[in-house]
Amino acid sequence: MPPRVTSVGLLARPDPAAGFSYPHHIDRASLDALPSRPGIYIFRDEQDRPLYVGKSVNIRSRVLSHLRTPEEARMLQQSRYVEYRRTAGDIGALLLESRLIKDLQPLHNKKLRRTREMCALRLSPDARSVPEIVYAREHDFASSEHLYGLFATRKAALEKLREIVDMHMLCPALTGLEQAMRGRACFARQISRCLGACTGAEPLAEHRRRLQAALDDLRIVVWPWAGPMGIVEECDGWKQTHVVDHWFYLGSIDDVAGLPPTRRAARRSFDVDTYKILVKPMLRGELRMEEVRLADE
């Protein structure tokens, strides 16, 4: 809508919510019950099937924004009511959203719907080793040293390694990207894109140091504790502790219930989404961490 001139000559934009009306086919009571607090919400259809799981620090505001979004018309047409679950903060909402998308498999959540098989680059301490691609099904990414990057495919890992080699003028032959020929320059050296570790022009130790430094920004952080830890959040006097073990979210402890989650050993493994949610704020010291004991310990 265009701005209008008021009686005092000031420009004012109309309130975008002024003409808003709730979709008649979505249960109004479920919308009115939405709190302006952190948590997750679930759009469900008439058979109670989950259509979409989302999270927000303000559940009510975020859900109403969905109702105003023409691009989501298909999902909204299928929706009949909105369910919500409170959390004490944004970290809890992110962890719960990730868990529920995997558990419920909602139709319109495509990005996080499936548990992904990840791979990484591994560079062993051996000075003559070359980066190799390893998979989460074969290595515990939460406790294995010398792993770099998280990739959905082998192709993506190789593309990233090629990018690093090109950017830092490393040797493709000594990084496993092309066959090494003893005493012969790699192709990159022939076009002045390699500093010459393949021919002895650059010491192997220096090449190794540069390769290690280039990979360091991609290092997968090993879980720093021996067992599970709690991440504490509080809202309106309500304390919630989110229990994570080796980058796997086990559940949350509420002050009301006071019962720790049970360790689910069969499913507990490195979870890439939990890792990405937590690793940066954890390294920056932004999370309130406490030791916890699980119900079956």
Automatic annotation (TrEMBL):
<keyword id="KW-0742">SOS response</keyword>
<protein>
    <recommendedName>
        <fullName>Excinuclease cho</fullName>
    </recommendedName>
</protein>
<feature type="domain" description="GIY-YIG">
    <location>
        <begin position="36"/>
        <end position="110"/>
    </location>
</feature>
<keyword id="KW-0228">DNA excision</keyword>
<dbReference type="InterPro" id="IPR000305">
    <property type="entry name" value="GIY-YIG_endonuc"/>
</dbReference>
<keyword id="KW-0378">Hydrolase</keyword>
<keyword id="KW-0234">DNA repair</keyword>
<keyword id="KW-0227">DNA damage</keyword>
<dbReference type="GO" id="GO:0004519">
    <property type="term" value="F:endonuclease activity"/>
</dbReference>
<dbReference type="InterPro" id="IPR035901">
    <property type="entry name" value="GIY-YIG_endonuc_sf"/>
</dbReference>
<keyword id="KW-0255">Endonuclease</keyword>
<dbReference type="InterPro" id="IPR050066">
    <property type="entry name" value="UvrABC_protein_C"/>
</dbReference>
<dbReference type="InterPro" id="IPR047296">
    <property type="entry name" value="GIY-YIG_UvrC_Cho"/>
</dbReference>
<keyword id="KW-0267">Excision nuclease</keyword>
<keyword id="KW-0540">Nuclease</keyword>
